[in-house]
Amino acid sequence: MKRVLAVSFVLFVITLAVVIGQRMSTDAMAVVIGVIFGVVASIPTSLLIMAASRRSSQDHSTMSPSYPDRYFPPVIIVNPNELGTRWAPSAPGPESLPPPSHRRFRIVGDDGEVDLWDDDFIDARDWREA
Fold first, then answer.
1. What's the Cα-to-Cα distance from 100 to each of 103, 117, 124, rounded to whole Å?
2. Average pLDDT in the 3-22 region?
3. Which domain holds residue 13?
4. Which of 50, 91, 116, 125 would disulfide-bridge 120, Cβ 3.0–4.6 Å?
């Protein structure tokens, strides 16, 4: 009885695969085959991870502690001398940047060159119209 059920199940799966395979496009078939191979490739890795985690959990349960209680070393706090200054000297302030120097702009166009300094450039933005 079990053998008949197993053979009929295998035949059903093969028939189902053939019917679905004939109706699917080649791209969809490639995706399905890729998924199947990916799952099959991940099985050995999963088994290795399960075996390693099971082994490490068994190792932790058999280990006995080396010291029953943890020993904490004594902590000694020494207060600083009260005769010195109470406040630290303040940090120096931020250094200021030097003022920006005048820049020289050279605008090159179809008409020729125009030389402008910083102040002239602000006043003569539309130099082609003038």
1. 9, 13, 20
2. 93
3. 1-59
4. 116
